[in-house]
Task: structure prediction
Amino acid sequence: MTASIDSFGALGLSEPLLAALADVGYESPSAIQAACIPPLLAGHDLLGEAQTGTGKTAAFALPALQRLDLALRDPQVLVLTPTRELAIQVAEAFQRYARKLPGFQVLPVYGGQGMVAQLRQLQRGAHVVVGTPGRVMDHINRKTLRLDTLQTLVLDEADEMLRMGFVDDVDWILEHTPAERQVVLFSATMAEPIRRIARRHMRKPQEIRIQARTATVAATVQKYCQVAAPHKLDALTRVLETEESLDAALIFVRTKTATVEIADKLEARGYAVAALSGDLTQVLRERVIDQLKQGRLDLIVATDVAARGLDVPRISHVINYDVPYDTEAYVHRIGRTGRAGRSGTAILFVTPREMRLLGTIERATRQKIEPMALPSRAAVADRRVAQFREQVEQVITGEDLAFFREVVRSLVSREDANLEEIAAALAFLAQRERPLQLPPAKGPDIADAARSMRPAPARSPSRAPAAKLAEGGALQRYRIDVGRQHQASPKDIVGAIANETGLSGRNIGRIDLFDDYSTVELPAQLPAEILELLRRTRVRQRPLGLRPLTPAEAEAAVKAKPAGRAKRAPAGKPGKAGARKPAAKKAGRRGGG
Ligand code: ADP
Ligand code: MG
Result:
């Protein structure tokens, strides 16, 4: 894209919007903003391909705001987002950009939020509604959201919405909008199901594509650290202690259980930390994010699902404690740092077995991930001593020490010791709570162990399980103990599996529902810890009891006619099967938005 336009003024935006942008401190438009704002102001449909962190929200919100008739209190803009978190963020962004538009109203609507409050606010009128597809459908059905005055419909993170199984809902909503509306679609990829939506519902869309290397990725230093699984926690605390310019860090792990476990351990070591998982209610989740923003928390341990869309500029570091399941998850994770033009650091822990994944990620992001030595015991001690010295200096310059000088003088005369000895004794006392040195190691130190590990063989994406997942390979069928008679829907099942394991939708394949059980395709060779988790995970109050199908069962399942089938996109080819209408699944996915 030509980035020659370097001021918002040149894009045709109105005075109140330019004033608001000056207020929020945006100096110049990002590439996608420069490319999208003029055609959107002119009323064109638009198909935009851009990664996270490129500034898409302002790209669609600014022109939408300019085209509003504020005197009309009916919804004129509807934005669909895959998650509630994103709905809230987009609504907040609208509010920020509209601060000089008196009387402007934006309303986020999403599942899990009180229906009554939403209804009241809808009745009062809103110019812009932002919501998840499920809840928006509910409101259209109840006639509490009328779309006859709709001018613009925005599909934000369309690929994510489709991956989460919202394809039919999105179609349905589009069909319920007036014929003469503008449709704007943003997606990180332009896979076939996205193009299909575009063909069906858009009129000669302008296509805008921003090269994959995003500002966010460029502003993020990426490093990896080879560390054996049992040493990860120690490695993490060493990194947290020694990283320069660490303000707040987001630590990614694979499971909900691990979020809590690691947060507890970090808390025990004195960190202001919280766990963030799909388990938290929306209220608690927002509280955690607020506390992070305000600096009352410095560390968050999260799963991929829970951290989706998180945007806190303070996050200086993303630590991939467990490797992500695919490169896309990796890009999403590191996109949580280096926000708003700041620089960020992403550190990836890899066990020797996982080394091959590195090459896959490097190819996908077209960026090098530099090796980083695990901080040694001496480095940690140096850092602690430096901090101690700083504290001492602050006390010398900032405190009234008259009384304490007298105490020291009396120690010198009574103990017959010199000042250096006395000071050393006092330093010893001062560090008892938090020793300046690490406790002596039992075996070789973990930093040395990491260094002496055999370098992994040539980075080939072909064999490592994680790399296989990344390329969308090998799915296998598993059996779960919930079926039609338990009122389970494919969306419930996908939701529970994704939430519990952090597996992304593209690693969850076809789901067939039978009367009292179902089959689901998941990556072959799931690690034992994940199998165990999914045995216990509940859907509709029933444990899934997940286990691989035996060959005989697999054969029987192929012959049996599923009670209700829902084909999801096979990994790597999102949505190919999604084009076919699932038989009876609408009811199930409606509530979830
Ligand atoms: P995306 O939706 O593409 O992931 P966002 O719209 O969430 O990106 O923007 C990412 C971050 O960049 C936000 O913190 C936003 O406030 C900031 N931002 C967006 N546009 C600009 C700009 N022109 N100048 C400075 N910061 C910007
Ligand atoms: Mg966005």
